Structures are given as C-alpha cells and as structure tokens.
C-alpha cells in the first residue's frame, strides 16, 4: 500500500504537466484550424487533400494561380496495354453471362456513363448508386463515391465480382480468356504470362489512364485568353466567387477531397438512412461517425454530359444540381443568373470525347 501511494503522489505533477501541455496543444490546433481550413468546414476531419497517386502538383502550384489545374493528353502510357485494356473494357466475357461489359455502364460515347439513375447489371439487377464517369478517373485520389478503392487497378475488381453488376468471379473470367488463343497471345506478349486477374486489372487501368479529355477551359488555364467566351469566363468567376472551388478544384475539378453532402443543411432530412444505406457514404467504409454522409467530391469535367446527378441521382438537371449545391454546400440561394452563368462555365468543361 505505501508503495502504491508514493507512486501515486509522484505521478500527480506529471499528470498536471501533461494536462497543461495537452490544453496548449488543443488551443494551437483550434487556432490553426480556424486559419488553415477552407470554409465551409463542418467536416474538417473528413478533408483529405493529398496529391493523387500520380504525384500531380498541389493546387497552389497552378501557373495562373487558379484553383483549377489544366490537363493535357497523357504521355508515357504503354500503348500495347492501352489497346488490350480497351478490348477488355468492351469485353462482355468479364460478366457472368457474357451480357455486360464495362462499357455498358460507362459508354464512352455518352460522357463515360449510362445516363440512368441506377445502372443495370447482369439479369437486370439495379445498382445502389449512380454511375460516375470513367473519363479522367485517373485524376481521382480514390475511386467510387465512398472512396473505397485506392487505385484504378483495385477498382476493376469491384464491378467484375459485384453481384448486381457483372456478377462473375475472376476464376470464371480467366477460364474464358484463357480459352481465347488471340487473348492469350496478347497477354504473353505484354505480361509474359497467361491472363491473370492482376494483368487484366493493370491493362484496364492503363486504358482508363488514357481517357483524358482536355477542354477549352484547359486551354484558357494554360494561358490562351480567348479559348473560352466572356460568358463562360463570367461563369467561372461566379464559380470561384461563390466558393465552389473550395471543394471542386485541382486537375479534375473535384476528385481530391472527401466532403459531407449537406454541409450547411441536412440533405438527407426526412429519409430513413440505416447504416447499410449508400447515403451513408464513407461511413460504410470507415465506420467513423464523422464520415456519415461524406462522399468523394466528384470531378466536374464533362458534367454537362452525365445527368442525372449526385450519388443517388436525385437531380435530373445540371441546373437543379447547381442550385442544390448552393443551398446545401454553401448555404446560399444562388441568384438564377449566377446559376445560368455557372452552367455556361460547366459546359466549357466538356472535353474532346474519345
Ligand atoms: C452494371 C454497371 C457497371 C458496370 C458493368 C461497371 N461499372 Fe463502373 N461503376 C458503376 C457504378 C454504379 C459505379 C459507382 C459505384 C460506387 O461508387 O459505389 C461505378 C464506378 C466506377 C469507377 C469509379 C469512378 C469514380 O469517379 O469514382 C470506375 C473507374 C469504374 N466504375 C470503371 C469500371 C470498369 C473498368 C468496369 C469494368 C471492369 C466497370 N466500371 C463496370 C457501374 C458499372
Ligand atoms: C463543401 C464542398 C462542396 C462545395 C462548396 C460544392 N460542392 Fe458540388 N459537390 C460536393 C459533393 C460532396 C458532391 C457529391 C454529392 C453526392 O452526390 O453525394 C458534389 C456534387 C456536385 C455536382 C454533381 C456532380 C455529379 O456528377 O453528380 C455538381 C454539378 C456540383 N457539385 C457543382 C457544384 C457547384 C456549381 C458548386 C458551387 C455553387 C458546388 N458544387 C459547391 C461538394 C461540394
């Protein structure tokens, strides 16, 4: 007992010091947070502004000091992998009953989407969320609305084995590909092996990295002053002024942050959202309270081509999506003329489709 007491009395001052140290740290962090976090900032802890997998420069490195960064067509891709990946992307053998390819839901002639509220998979089954575009997806720091895949390669496994999408297994897919002599020859030439899941994923990811769509806005960002019209420029100014760029920024005008949907107002009010509901967003991946209703901020390139909008396809028109963004993310009722103006800007983000 005496021993325990003496240990206890010795430990007291240490505790106090630790407590004082901790309080100072908290004060510093809070003050730091006020100055350095972008507003609106109800979800500070959810903001993860890391450079993407390709090490693209951070937002502040923009030549024109704009929050958006221009893109160019990629160089240095392995053309043989791109060609094989293109074939595989369009190959329905990746699905259980050979009925559906990646392109079924990500139609490259339609902005890289199916334009359906919910995609239709094998046997007519409906998906949980709206299909995002595959164009420029290599610029996203994570894949999927909830960011559950870290890379494009990792992402490919999702749809192949998803029971409501391609409903297959790698085993099944590989049996089919190995029975195709021409396919086998291509894999041997490129990967020095028979078809494997890793090689299929690698080729498709390489193909997706080629799906880059520079737009007139990129020419403007690169210094070509008359690449966009004065209305489009006005729309961009409005987009900046209203603060859309706090979330939609960088190379993909999005795709580099997680943010809550409903920062200023509860977007899901009146809905029953249990823990398994896709409306929970990133919470389903991390199970952290602060990640409820948090989503990857979608990139806005080609957005005028990819209606309907939001993970739940709840808005049919771009105009309504922009208006809702003002209300729920910024807490403003955007004047209709600003909405129209921003629509012009968003159209200038349509790139050359491949
Ligand atoms: C049945 C329709 C369907 C098929 C088939 C399909 N996808 Fe998707 N894709 C979706 C949906 C829906 C999502 C969004 C899922 C989510 O976020 O939870 C998605 C998400 C993605 C994303 C993430 C984009 C982003 O911005 O987060 C990529 C990349 C992608 N798919 C590529 C592919 C590839 C490659 C294939 C073929 C191997 C494929 N998809 C097959 C419907 C489909
Ligand atoms: C606080 C961060 C934030 C701000 C500010 C913000 N957005 Fe968003 N935006 C998001 C998130 C998150 C989503 C995805 C919501 C969802 O579907 O769950 C999104 C989705 C969108 C979409 C739909 C894209 C698609 O493919 O479905 C459009 C269009 C859009 N935003 C435009 C804007 C405009 C215009 C502004 C300014 C008026 C703006 N956003 C401000 C975070 C933000």
Task: Describe this entry's structure for a reader.
The protein contains 12 helices and 2 strands; from the N terminus they run H-H-H-H-H-H-H-H-H-E-H-E-H-H. By secondary structure, the protein is mostly helical. It has 3 domains: 35 residues; 161 residues, Orthogonal Bundle (Cytochrome Bc1 Complex, Chain D, domain 2), CATH 1.10.760.10; 131 residues, Cytochrome c-like domain (Cytochrome Bc1 Complex, Chain D, domain 2, Orthogonal Bundle), CATH 1.10.760. Strands 1-2 form a two-stranded antiparallel ribbon. The longest helix has 35 residues. The N and C termini lie far apart (79 Å). The site of one heme C has 28 residues, from helix 11.
The helicity comes to 25-40%
Assembly context of the chains? single chain
β-strand number: 2
Q: Low-confidence parts, pLDDT < 50 over ≥5 residues?
A: 1-11, 34-63
Can I get a quick summary?
By secondary structure, the chain is mostly helical.
Output the keywords.
two-stranded antiparallel sheet, mainly alpha, 3 domains, 2% strand, disordered N terminus, 12 helices, Cytochrome Bc1 Complex, Chain D, domain 2, 354 residues
Topology of helices and strands:
Blueprint: H1 2-36, H2 79-89, H3 102-105, H4 152-161, H5 170-178, H6 181-191, H7 197-209, H8 216-221, H9 230-241, E1 258-260, H10 283-286, E2 294-296, H11 318-330, H12 336-347
Helix pairs in contact: 2-7, 4-7, 9-12, 11-12
Bound molecules: heme C (HEC) (2 copies).
The site of one heme C (HEC) has 28 residues, from helix 3, helix 4 and helix 7.
